Structure formats: structure tokens, C-alpha cells
Amino acid sequence: MQENLQRRTTINNNNNNNNNPQATSLESGMPSVGSIVWTAGRARAQQAINFYANIDYLRPYFDVEPKEILRRLLHALTPRWPSPEENIKSELYGPSMIVFTLAAILIYQMKLASHSVEDGTLIGTSFLISFGYWIGSSFAISSVSFVCNTHLNLIQILCLNGYALFSHCLVLFLATFIHTGHDHLLFYGLWCIVGGLAAIRMMLVVMARTINPRYRVLLGLFVSAIHMFFLLYLHFAYHELAETVSHAFTNEATVSADLPVIARAYQLVDAVTQSQEIADDSHNNFNMSSLSTEFLSPIISSTCN
Amino acid sequence: MATTIEDDETPFFSSSSQPMGMFTGDISGTGNQSNKNELSTLNEPVLDTIKRDLGAVLRKFGYAVIPRESATLLQQWDLWGPLILVTILAILLQSSSTKVSSGVEFAQVFTLMLMGSIAVTVNSQLLGGKISFFQSVCVLGYCLLPLLLAAIINNILLYISSKSTIPILHIIRFLIVMAAFGWAMYASTRFLGQTQQPSRRLLVLYPIFLFYFLIAWLIILHAHPK
């Protein structure tokens, strides 16, 4: 099958090369339909070739070893003032994979919370949010740093921003899988500590490359503000179930009962965690340890829809 | 020498003795072997074509289930297997009873497959490998077979658990899906990992790991439609 496809494309290419660029019909000077189609196809083929050329342009930024990636991941959470001679050799593999992981975590969270999207799919939304933030915020930081005369180019900012998103992945992952009695406290603690560490690291790198002290402070605050607010947004927009569950643990009344699954999840998790005292028929026989309770509570809540 | 020059200068519509032979010929081909093969498959009975293609698809399923050292999946890729598997998986993972969102959920699995294949292909090409988009769709799709079997078992176990209350079933479900995930990961590693240098193999495998992990979690989270 593949051989046939290749033969057909080579035959088409040969035919196209032999044709005149704009064959006109004999009656009038108007271009014929065939020539219009051929010109459009040629333009599209050139666009495709340009796309592949762009991939080659990105290839040097994917030249890394796994050990280097692990080292950079760890350093993304350790703030230190970079030395002047240190040169950030930017690469884009680590940031791309971190953004994909963030998109996967968002998909998982949205599935858990039965988040419904009217236009488009869940997966499209999460990819758009993750990649959109990474590229959009990098462009924003790049523009502001251009104004502030910072010695960082776009690729370096993309790399820095991407590795800082590792903190977002970590916080959301832990906040999704660990449901304790103090969900809010856990999230805010992680937000401050892990998010804060990554924000400070990014801030210090950016500040070290800016000469003017006033611009330095401005840029540093801008960068860390974007970073921290995005994590807050991700949590509150896509993590409804965890919030409702935490209300259930502290026996507060829930505000939003629009989605039936959340109301029932409230009942079920309440039943499970108040240690077999509630006579709920389908959950009386669950006698699991607390760790598996926390781990499997999303499964239970989604099973009994 | 002089005769060849004469031949080159022969005009198109000349009336000399030689050109008439140039315009007659056999429509069955110019003696090219592959040309003959191509035309012969058009003339064969439909049943033969179906048997041959079905055999190729089933053979590839066999390679996905019992991974062996073979380049068949990559060199003779086809998209029938991925289409069948992804369609069945999308039907199994529909949980909503309303008509509106069930269509969206059906499309989600296809979207995930598309995004995953694009990510794996672009990543592999940027890391220096030589794999095309359709080859990666083929390998990722065929290696979905263990996860599909786990989804079928998952649905059966959910049905059983809705009739009776056995708590251990949830743990069994989880273990079966995780085992299928490991199996799918191992199978695709054997095929896609070969296209890279050894030191970079882990870098190529990470997106594949993410893709299968997401599908495994979608299967585990799936609830039986009421």
C-alpha cells in the first residue's frame, strides 16, 4: 500500500513538473480550472515543505540526554542566583514534555470532575490551555523583557517557563491524588512552597539578566505573578470535585448542586470516610485501608453515577 | 555517432520510418515487474484481496500481542487495525446516557489518538529518528489491543459488580488494566524504540508512556452506563 502511494506521488510530481504554470484556454485568456487547481496544490505543497523546514530549525533544541533533563527538572525547584558566566543552553524537549504532562493531568482532573465543555472536546481544551499558556506567557515575558532590556532570547524564556511548569504538574498531581481532611490547606501549602520555589527560581534568573534595578524588580514581580496566578486558575477552574469533597469532609453545605454526580459523590465519600457507620447499601462492605480509600475514592464516586 | 544525432533530431510528427514503432506498445506495461504486480491485484477476485488484507491485519495483531523482533509493523503499515480498535474502545468508553455528550465522548478517544500520534511522531523526528506519522498511528493503534481487552474485561466486571457487592472487584479491575498498560508499553517499545539510538530511547518512550497511561486511566475511571 505504501509503495503504491509513493509511486502515485512521484508520478503526480512528474506530471506537475511537465505542465505549464498557467495554462490558459484557447477561447479566452482566463486560466483553466486545471491550472487553478494545480497552482493551489503547488502552493500548499510549498507550505508543507516550509513546515518541515521549520522542524529542522527546531532540531538542535531537542539534542539532550535524559540525565540532563533530570538535572534541569531538579534545578527548576532550587532557587539560586545564577553566576554571570553561566550560559543557559536552552532545549525544548523538557518543556514540551512537561506541557504534555500538564495537559494529561488536566484531562484527568476534568474527567474526575465531569467537567462539561459545550464547544470542543475536553482534550482539545486541556491542550489549548497548556500549550496556549506556555507559548502565550513566554511571548508576554519576552515582550516585557525586551522593554526592560533583558539579555534573554525567546527560546531561553520558553525553556525557563517550561521547566517552571514542572511545579504546576507536581502540585496538581499531588492535589488530585491526595484527598485528606484539609484539602484546601494542602493545596495552598503546596501552592506556596512548590509554586513559590519555581517562581523564585525563574525570577532570579530573569533578574540576573536585567541591568536596570527598577526594571529588575518589575520584571521579577511580573514573572512570578503570572506563574502563581496560573496555578491558582488551574486549580479553581478544573478541580471542582476536590473542593466539594473537602466540603463533605468538614460537613459544610455545598453551594453548587448543578451536576448530579457531585451531589452523589458528596454522599458516597461521606459514607466511606465516616467509617462504616452510615448504612449505605452499596458501600457497607468496603473495608479498605485509608490509603486505598483516598486513592480509590474517585473511582468509587464515578462508578456510582 | 551520426545515427544517434539523427535520432535526436527526429521531429515529432515526421513521416520517417522509425517513429511509428514508438507509438505502439503494450498497454500491460513496459516490462516493469512492479507494474505487472500492481495491475494483477486489480484483476484478482475480491475474496482474494479481502483474505490477503485480513491476513495482514491479523498477523499484525499477533505481533502486537506477542512482540517479536520484526519490522512488519513499521514497513508495511496499515490503518485498519487502529481504526477497528479505536472505534471499539470509543464505544466501550461511552458512559453518558444523554445523546449530546455521548457523541463528544466518542470523539474524545479519536482526538486523543490523533494528538498522541502527532506528539510521538514530531518528538521522534526531532530526536533524529526516521518515522512517519502513519507509521506511528499504526504502531500505537495495534499496540492498543491489550488495553482494549482490559476495557472489555473491565466492562464485564462492572456489570458483575452492579449485580453483587464484591469490593475486591475494583482492585482486580485496577490490576488488570495496569497489567494491560504494561503489556502495551512493552509491545510499542519493541517497535518504536528500535528507531532511536540507545541513549535517547527513554526520551522517545516518554510520550508513548503518557499516551497509554492516559488511556489506561480513562478505562479505570469508566463507569457503567445506567
UniProtKB/TrEMBL annotation, chain A:
Its main location: membrane. Keywords: Cell membrane, Cytoplasm, Differentiation, Glycoprotein, Golgi apparatus, Membrane, Transmembrane, Transmembrane helix. One of its GO terms (biological process) is cell differentiation. The chain crosses the membrane at residues 92-110, 122-148, 160-179, 185-206, 218-238. Residues 1-11 have a biased composition (Polar residues). GO terms for cellular component: Golgi apparatus; plasma membrane. It is a multi-pass membrane protein. It is found in: Cell membrane; Cytoplasm; Golgi apparatus, cis-Golgi network membrane. Residues 1-28 are annotated as: Disordered. PANTHER family: NATURAL KILLER CELL-SPECIFIC ANTIGEN KLIP1 (PTHR15627), PROTEIN YIPF3 (PTHR15627:SF14). Involved in the maintenance of the Golgi structure. May play a role in hematopoiesis. This is Protein YIPF3. It comes from Rotaria magnacalcarata.
TrEMBL record, chain B:
The keyword Ribosomal protein does not apply. One of its GO terms (biological process) is endoplasmic reticulum to Golgi vesicle-mediated transport. The chain crosses the membrane at residues 77-94, 106-127, 139-160, 166-186, 202-223. It is found in: Golgi apparatus membrane; Membrane. Residues 1-29 are annotated as: Disordered. Residues 67-218 form the Yip1 domain. The keyword Ribonucleoprotein does not apply. Keywords: Membrane, Transmembrane, Transmembrane helix. Its main location: Golgi. It comes from the Eukaryota. One of its GO terms (cellular component) is Golgi membrane. Pfam families: Yip1. It is a multi-pass membrane protein. Residues 1-10 have a biased composition (Acidic residues). Belongs to the YIP1 family. This is Protein YIPF. It comes from Rotaria magnacalcarata.
